[in-house]
Request: fold
Amino acid sequence: MLKKLKKRLETGVLVTALVVPLALCVFAFLGLACYFAFRDILPPELAALVTAACGIVLIALILVIARIANAGRGSSPRHRGESPEFREDFEDFLREHADPVLAEWVRNHPDRAAITTLVLGIAAGYSDQFRHVLMDMYSRYAESEAVRRSRRQE
Reply:
């Protein structure tokens, strides 16, 4: 799974490194073409102003579309099901009941623990399936821990 994630990350970085400069060149030439088109019917100063205004309107339109897309994504049913109290309970539970072996490993290898946490966080943020697997693992662990603690108190 890590190899697949690494491959996707490498591909994404490569595509971004190629597409961003190319897109900037395309938009620069598009702006220049608009300027030349407007220059034939308007004075040069006004043609430059109209071209810049068109660019600003295009940028604003893209930002509005992105905001609408993100608003729709944030109100999906999977996000509505998790209450903030649940997340806080989960963090408190992990803080209080950290496995001693895991806690010792984190103390002995903080660099590896940070990288592992980063990779797990990226994977959980990227993949719904991986997030559900982590939540299922947590639910099972919490249930078994509750049973174990109730037996110990008896």
